[in-house]
Specification:
The complex is a heterodimer of chains A (284) and B (340). Chain A has 284 residues and is mainly alpha-helical. Chain A has 12 helices and no strands. Chain B has a two-stranded antiparallel ribbon. Classes of the chains: A mainly alpha (284), B mainly alpha (340).
């Protein structure tokens, strides 16, 4: 009797240790990929880094060049996307948090906003192709910026909604009690209290769109030359990386790695900064 | 808490038009301020509504642009494996199959790993280690997908390719499932795509699992420990049943990500419009086909067939994501109490 009890106990101990050991192994396994991918990007990218990268434009096969036109194009499109998407996202989030808090409509909009947030970005690109590129008759930087804005919008909306929800009701009461109209209360009290949180949302959203490739493939396309004209196809880092990485030319592949390193760095720095901002305000 | 807030809001609203202290502003100015209030409300409400319009717009525009292909090929579009731009004969079977199979491989790999990571972070790791490990895993989610693709093609595929002869000889010799592992040892194909997708969705699934594991009431766990359960038994018989629905929701969210992932898959799946049983053979996914072919599609029917593929992808991910949201939402509704 006691022998069988003992076996049972040992078996339970064994499975406990085995499974928990597996959990530790799985965590190390997950971290292993992170290190491997970052190391690859760093080692391939660092050898291709030089000043020419920022002063030269994308070269013809076999010659030396840089990614200046792609950086400028990407910055222009991301800037446009932020200009379009941020006000829309903040105002829409304001409606959910300040006017429709707790209503069924707000629940429905939150639900579908989260769906839009996770929708495949390539489908958003197709949508913008259908409603912007086809009527305009050509690929354009504007279409690329619009597709990025649609990807940015749900992130900004959601963080604005959440951050405004954390503003204490007593602050609003104080403003309203002084006779401030509702809109003035929102602009001068709620927004100020939630400012750093909303900014975090915008940063996260920019981090998200700055590495996006799929929606730009058939909206902005790309451009071999330097251009700041948003009516026409425009060079951008992700699509250039894609084209160059898939090419058989070693010079192009080097440039692709350099671009990948810089894109990864930009994204990681943005998300670290926004993480820091969140941490900064969490002990409340 | 929401209810009291709501009641408070109602009180302020009621308080604004009839203050205890009389207004010192003219009726005209008061009307102006109220008009501003209404205007602001309508503006923000309209923009919030835009989110719904966008989703409807995406579905509608893709369906209309894909209508030519749907109409021309009929239901056969879904199970035809043809893909010939020259004779304009298109079918969606190969990309749909590739999308589903690569995502399925991703889940088979990612779910146990994510569970282990979530278990480690929520139950095992000392306090000081939780935050750094969690953040590091989440960093994986921040890496642009095109970098996963380049790493997959240039670094990972050769490594995997060198193990594939072994897979051929050993797993390939098994009856039944052996057919999955017999193929050219090129390192690119469905299996590579699935593995890379797994790495990409691990941070999403493990973050959700960790978050829901942390909401399990300490009292429940402590009662199990008090009865003499081991840590694993608590995880398996208390934490997991309590959070079951949300865990499945998290898995579905990961599935939604994997289905629509484009760049990483495009690099490594091989882009061949042929149906193969073997996971080592090149295949195609909806997203990869779109990324590779759309900008160069020359005929209206070709474009329409690709748009139809996009519509199918949107519908599949939409359904998966709605299910995921519903399951995650139930935990917030006090799920678990009934489940125990």
């Amino acid at each position: 009797m006691s022998a069988t009890m003992n076996v049972r106990y040992l078996r339970r101990r064994f499975w406990n240790i085995f499974n928990l050991g597996m959990a530790v192994a799985m965590t190390l396994f997950g971290l292993f990929w992170l290190v491997w991918i970052l190391w690859t990007t760093l080692s391939y990218g660092a050898t291709a880094l030089n000043l020419e990268l920022f002063t030269g434009d994308t070269p013809a096969p076999g010659s030396i060049g840089g990614l200046r036109n792609a950086f400028v194009g990407s910055l222009l499109m991301i800037g446009m996307a932020v200009l379009i998407g941020t006000p829309v996202g903040i105002l829409a989030g304001t409606y959910l948090a300040e006017f429709a808090q707790g209503s069924r409509l707000a629940g429905v909009i939150r639900f579908f906003n989260d769906i839009l947030l996770s929708a495949p970005s390539i489908v958003i690109g197709l949508f913008v192709y259908a409603v912007v590129v086809v009527p305009m008759g050509n690929f354009s930087g504007l279409a690329g910026a619009l597709s990025l804005a649609i990807l940015l919008l749900p992130v900004v909306l959601r963080t604005t909604d959440e951050m405004l929800g954390m503003v204490p009701g007593t602050m609003r009461e104080a403003a309203l009690a002084l006779g401030a109209p509702h809109w003035k209360m929102i602009v001068q009290v709620s927004y100020r209290a939630a400012r750093s949180g909303i900014l975090t949302g915008v940063l996260l959203a920019v981090a998200r769109i700055s590495g996006e490739t799929a929606p730009l493939l058939f909206t902005a396309l790309s451009n071999q030359f330097f251009s700041t004209n948003l009516d026409k196809p425009i060079a951008n880092v992700p699509v250039v990386i894609f084209q160059f990485a898939m090419s058989p030319y070693p010079e192009w592949q080097h440039l692709a790695w350099a671009g990948a390193l810089i894109a990864a760095m930009a994204v990681l720095v943005l998300s670290l900064v926004s993480r820091f901002l969140i941490k900064d305000r969490s002990p409340r | 808490m929401d209810d009291t807030r709501d009641a408070e809001l109602g009180m302020w609203k009621a308080a604004v038009p009839s203050p205890a202290v009389p207004y010192r502003i003219s009726p005209a100015r008061s009307r102006h301020l109220h008009a501003m209030d209404r205007g602001f409300r309508w503006l923000t409400g309209g923009l919030a509504f835009l989110v719904l319009l966008l989703l409807v717009g995406v579905a509608l525009s893709l369906f209309l642009r894909g209508w030519e292909a749907f109409h021309h090929f009929g239901f056969a579009f879904f199970w035809s494996d043809a893909w010939d731009p020259v004779t304009e004969n298109f079918g969606a079977l190969v990309p749909i199959y590739g999308t589903l199979v690569s995502s399925l491989i991703a889940l088979l790999i990612a779910v146990p790993i994510s569970f282990g990571i979530a278990l480690f972070i929520s139950e095992l790791a000392p306090e000081w280690l939780r935050q750094p490990v969690g953040s590091a895993i989440e960093l994986l989610a921040g890496i642009p997908s095109i970098i996963f693709g380049m790493w997959g093609l240039f670094v990972f595929a050769p490594v995997l390719g060198s193990t594939e002869p072994w897979l051929n000889d050993h797993l390939g010799a098994l009856p039944g499932i052996g057919a999955l592992f017999r193929g050219p040892p090129m390192g690119i194909g469905m299996l590579t795509a699935g593995i890379i997708l797994a790495i990409m969705v691990i941070p999403f699934i493990s973050a959700i699992m960790r978050d829901v594991f942390l909401v399990v009431p300490a009292m429940l766990k402590e009662s199990a420990y008090g009865l003499g359960a081991t840590t694993w038994e608590v995880a398996r018989h208390v934490v997991l049943p309590y959070t079951r629905t949300a865990v499945v929701g998290g898995v579905f969210l990961g599935l939604g990500r994997a289905l629509g992932e484009t760049m990483a898959v495009t690099f490594v799946i091989g882009n061949a419009h042929d149906l193969h049983i073997s996971l080592l053979d090149a295949g195609n996914s909806i997203a990869a086909a779109l990324a590779n072919e759309f900008a160069e599609a020359f005929s209206p029917m070709y474009k329409s067939a690709l748009m139809a593929l996009g519509f199918i992808l949107f519908i599949i991910t939409f359904v998966v994501l709605v299910l995921a949201k519903l399951m995650l939402w139930r935990l917030g509704q006090g799920q678990g109490k009934a489940g125990l």
